[in-house]
Amino acid sequence: MREVEATTFVTETPAELERRLTPAAVLEYEGTFEVTDVTETDDGWTVTGEMAGVEVEFDFEKRPDGYHYEQRGEDGPFEHMETDVTLTPLNEGTRVTMRSAVSMALPLSSVTDRVAAWKRRGELQRALDALEADVS
Q: What is the pTM of this model?
């Protein structure tokens, strides 16, 4: 399993960002999946995304400073993927940090997990770039 992180600063407060950063928006900002369904659960939300005809579910949980979410099962691009989105107040704005742990569970995991982390880092950076563009 590999961990990756991406961070940006935006000029909105955490409270303003919480209204913008819904679970569906977080997944859409990543740019890999088209959100097809959002279901509220006892623990948070299940967001269904589709990519090239494959549906993947992500379980989101609200945290005091953002979200935690995980790919459900092994039907998605990763064997395991979990991400924390953290909103930290900073200088009349917010530092947004996305941190993921990913695993492919393929032979030569030292190589395949590195590739998975590289792909995931790109998704995290794309999400933060999209958020920045939305805030501007």
A: 0.91
Residue at 35: amino acid letter = V
36-70 tens-digit pLDDT: 999 999 999 999 999 988 899 999 999 999 999 99
pLDDT in tens, 110-134: 677 888 898 999 999 999 999 999 9
Closest CA to 5 of 86, 98, 118: 98
Pairing of strands 34-40, 45-51: antiparallel
What one-character DSSP code corresponds to residue 106?
-
Q: Is 107 exposed, middle or buried (0-12, 13-18, 19+ CB in 10 A)?
A: exposed
Q: State the virtual CA torsion across 133, 20, 69, 31 in degrees, nearest 10.
A: -30
d(CA 107, CA 109): 5
| Helix, strand or coil, per DSSP, at residue 66 | strand
